[in-house]
Structures are given as structure tokens and as C-alpha cells.
């Protein structure tokens, strides 16, 4: 489908209009922030402003502005698609594994920390690659080329020939938690991706054979998920517990702490109106681990009560490793840990509570999620809150006519609205944003667990099958596509 000059002009005009409008909003916000930070009342900044400053996110103190920033990122992606050679775009996608490999080496060698340390010791910006090579234990010429490749993505920068310094993006690699989080994908994720063609081919052949003989397909353990081909039939979490994988298991646990920072979960207490819930509202945190969500919510909403459910070993860790705040909340009766398999019926004592499922469904197939939902529904909850990822397909990205381009961008500007129970449009809205990381997470879930990140329609259908109607969306402003989905029992 070749684009005419008229169509290309229409597409580019629509995109540049978005760039102009969003840039104006962001510029105005930053100017206001500059003025705020010079005022004596700077010490009285809001919770959102404090979190945004801590996470070094210049646009996320305000949800509307963070939405404008997300829309600008999407427009910039589309501009590249509109003006670059289509063959170059495809070639770049086909060779992106080199970028991932370069990042893997930089992470394993801790290059960002080395640059930071040596720069501080010498008082100079940047480090020559011959020095960096000796510390990183990577061949000098290839290290320079790897860092040069990463610099095209804004990760590191070559400030003079063969002298590299950190960027805002590469400085995130100084965090051990974030490096560990990346390591999950750069090791197990890359291994699962490498066997995906074989997995799909074998699954298809078995399904076709079963269909021809009129029976249901049965798959051996190594074909239940792509990663199982790597692990010789062991599901990911079982593989993680093998003695020979102890180092990787430790890295995984550290990496999951980094996951909360990646998703900007520090905004959780204000992205959903927990503070507006009535005093002593009971919230059951299903699969809540050691209480990470409560650490984020209770400081802003100390009037709530939580029951944190997980497996016995996990809740014991939650109690034994509780920090000062958690110990105080336990003593005050604000938090109680409860051993509970979420595939089993809920105890009567939590009937009528709000149930909260944070990031526990994305690594489970629909059949398993449905089991959990049915158990929750039988506990007569007042409502269900699901914090999980939403895939928002933008469908068409180009048209063959100028009128078609206008229609595409009219929908893109409108974002996603969820109709209320009475059929009228609700005021919850998700601004259109890039889906690159969201769809990458979808492939992660498929590669590791044969699970998925779900679209809005898939969530709506699954919740309804479990006895709930989706009524509101509360997007997490700094996440990679997560939202709190509020659902009422039906």
C-alpha cells in the first residue's frame, strides 16, 4: 500500500499537530514547576510532586501532564514510521537483538557504575574506553562499539572520540535492583525467545495431529510454555528453585524489588482514591506477598485495614522481616497476614471486603485466573480491584486516504473510555500511549508461563465470567501500561 503525497501530508500534519499541542502543555508545566521550586513554599510540595522528584520524572506530578507526555512519545514513534525508509524500520526491528545483547554485556559488567565511580575519582566527565575496558574486563574495541550502539538509544553517550559518559537513562543501571530486573529478561527472556519458533512449530504439529484424529491436543511438560523447552519441562518458578539456579533466584528476587520502581508504583496511593474509602474499610490483598502494596498505601490512607494473603512461607517472611511501619500496623490491627492459597475458597471472615489483586493474574492463563475470580466472588466482595497490565491496540496506524488518516488520529486523541454500568460514558480515561513495552511484557508472559497481558475486552469478558462487571479504570501514571480495574459483583 503506497502512500500518496496527499496521504503522507495528512499523516504528518496530524502528528505534528499532536506534537505542537502536547509540547505546549509540557513546556507550560515545566515553566510553572520552575517557578514553584523558587518559592518559599517549595517545602510544602504535594505527595505527587515528592514522588515525581524522587523518581526523577519531570511530568508525573500531574496525571494530565503525564498523559500528554505519553501521547507525545507515541506521536514521535509514529513520525519516525511516517518519514523513515520502511525497509530501514524493518531492518532495525530484525537486528534489535544486537541492542539487547549490548545492554546485557553493559549490565553484567556494570559499566554505568564504573563510569560514575571513575568520573568522580578523576573529576572529569566521561571515561576513555581503554580505562573502562580494564575495569569492565571487555575487549576495548568491541566495548566502544557496544556502547556506541547503546548511545543511539540514549543509553550512554560518546562525548568525545572513545570517551563515554552516562546519560539520565544509563544512570538507572547503577541501581542493583534495576539491573537485576533487566537481568530477568536478558537471560531467561532471551533464552525463551530463542526457542519460541521451535515451541510454536511443535505445538502446531501436535494440535493439527489431534484435530485430524478428532481428539483434544495433549502437550508434554516441555511444550506447556516456551521456557519449558529451556528448562527441560520445569515450569519457570520450579526451575528457579533448583539448587544450581540459586544465584539466578537471588537475582530474580532482587529484580522484583526493582519492578516496583519501573512501574512507578510509588504513585499507587494517589492513582486510586484509597484515601476516599470509609474508615476501617477492609481490603484483602490476594497474593500480596510481604506487603509491598500496604507499604505504599497505608502512609497516605492510615484509616484502612488490610489482610495480606499468600502462601504460608511467604506470610511468615512478611511477619519475620517486617519493617518498623509494618510492625506498627500489625500491632494496631491495620495489617494482618493470612496463609491462603488463592485457588482455594476464601475464609468466611473476609466476606464482604474489597478484594485487591495486584499483579497476580498476568502470569496465569485464563482458566487459572477464572478459578481465583470465582473464589473471590463466592466471598461476597463489596468490589474487586485488579491491578494489572492493559494492552490497548491502536489498530490502524496508517491509511491510504487523507480522510482515513484524520479518522485514525481522531480516535488516537480520544484515548480509551469505559462505559458505565448504565451505558453512559464513564469519566475514567486512558490516554493513548506507546504499546511497545506493554506488548513486550505480553510476550514475556507468553514466553515464561504461556500466559498473557490482556486487552480491555479480554479483561471485561474474563471478569464477567468470574461474576464481576468492569466499571472503572484508574491508569497508573508512571507504569508501562498498568491500571487498577474496578469491578462490581453481578
UniProtKB/TrEMBL annotation:
Pfam families: Methyltransf_2. It comes from Collybia nuda. The keyword S-adenosyl-L-methionine applies. GO terms for molecular function: O-methyltransferase activity. Residues 250-386 form the O-methyltransferase C-terminal domain. This is O-methyltransferase-domain-containing protein. It comes from the Eukaryota. One of its GO terms (biological process) is methylation. Keywords: Methyltransferase, S-adenosyl-L-methionine, Transferase. InterPro entries: COMT-like, COMT_C, SAM-dependent_MTases_sf, WH-like_DNA-bd_sf, WH_DNA-bd_sf.
Amino acid at each position: 500500500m503506497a502512500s500518496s503525497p496527499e496521504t503522507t501530508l495528512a499523516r504528518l500534519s496530524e502528528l505534528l499537530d499532536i506534537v505542537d499541542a502536547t509540547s505546549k502543555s509540557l513546556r507550560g508545566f515545566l515553566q510553572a514547576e520552575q517557578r514553584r521550586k523558587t518559592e518559599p513554599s517549595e517545602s510544602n510540595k504535594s505527595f505527587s510532586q515528592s514522588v515525581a522528584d524522587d523518581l526523577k520524572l519531570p511530568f508525573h506530578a500531574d496525571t494530565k501532564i503525564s498523559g500528554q507526555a505519553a501521547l507525545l512519545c507515541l506521536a514521535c514513534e509514529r513520525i519516525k514510521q511516517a518519514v523513515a525508509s520502511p525497509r530501514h524500520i524493518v531492518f532495525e526491528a530484525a537486528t534489535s537483538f544486537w541492542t539487547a545483547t549490548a545492554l546485557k554485556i553493559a549490565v553484567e559488567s556494570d559499566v554505568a557504575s564504573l563510569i560514575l565511580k571513575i568520573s568522580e575519582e578523576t573529576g572529569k566527565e566521561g571515561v576513555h574506553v581503554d580505562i573502562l575496558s580494564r575495569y569492565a574486563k571487555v575487549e576495548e574495541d568491541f566495548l566502544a562499539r557496544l556502547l556506541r550502539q547503546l548511545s543511539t538509544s540514549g543509553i550512554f553517550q560518546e562525548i568525545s572520540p572513545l570517551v563515554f559518559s552516562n546519560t539520565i537513562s544509563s544512570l538507572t543501571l547503577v541501581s542493583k535492583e534495576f539491573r537485576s530486573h533487566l537481568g530477568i529478561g536478558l537471560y531467561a527472556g532471551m533464552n525463551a525467545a530463542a526457542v519460541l519458533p521451535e515451541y510454536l512449530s511443535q505445538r502446531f504439529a501436535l494440535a493439527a495431529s489431534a484435530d485430524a484424529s478428532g481428539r483434544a491436543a495433549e502437550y508434554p511438560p516441555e511444550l506447556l510454555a516456551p521456557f519449558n523447552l529451556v528448562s527441560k519441562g520445569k515450569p519457570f518458578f520450579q526451575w528457579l528453585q533448583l539448587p544450581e539456579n540459586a544465584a539466578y533466584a537471588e537475582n530474580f528476587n532482587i529484580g522484583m524489588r526493582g519492578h516496583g520502581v519501573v512501574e512507578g508504583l510509588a504513585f499507587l496511593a494517589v492513582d486510586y482514591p484509597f484515601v476516599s474509602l470509609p474508615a476501617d474499610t477492609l481490603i484483602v490483598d490476594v497474593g500480596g506477598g510481604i506487603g509491598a502494596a500496604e507499604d505504599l498505601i497505608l502512609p497516605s490512607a492510615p484509616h484502612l485495614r488490610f489482610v495480606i494473603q499468600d502462601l504460608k512461607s511467604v506470610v511468615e517472611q512478611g511477619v519475620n522481616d517486617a519493617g518498623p511501619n509494618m510492625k506498627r500496623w500489625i500491632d494496631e490491627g491495620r495489617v494482618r497476614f493470612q496463609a491462603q492459597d488463592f485457588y482455594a475458597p476464601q475464609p468466611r471472615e473476609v466476606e464482604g471486603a474489597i478484594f485487591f489483586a495486584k499483579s497476580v493474574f498476568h502470569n496465569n492463563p485464563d482458566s487459572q485466573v477464572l478459578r481465583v475470580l470465582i473464589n473471590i466472588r463466592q466471598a461476597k466482595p463489596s468490589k474487586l480491584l485488579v491491578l494489572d497490565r492493559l494492552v490497548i491496540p491502536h489498530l490502524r496506524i496508517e491509511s491510504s486516504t487523507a480522510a482515513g488518516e484524520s479518522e485514525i488520529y481522531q480516535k488516537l486523541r480520544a484515548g480509551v473510555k469505559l462505559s458505565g454500568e448504565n451505558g453512559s460514558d464513564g469519566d475514567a480515561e486512558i490516554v493513548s500511549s506507546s504499546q511497545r513495552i506493554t506488548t513486550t511484557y505480553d510476550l514475556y508472559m507468553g514466553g515464561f508461563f504461556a500466559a498473557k497481558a490482556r486487552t480491555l475486552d479480554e479483561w471485561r469478558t474474563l471478569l464477567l465470567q468470574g461474576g464481576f462487571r468492569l466499571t472503572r479504570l484508574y491508569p497508573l501514571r508512571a507504569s508501562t501500561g498498568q491500571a487498577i480495574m474496578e469491578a462490581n459483583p453481578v
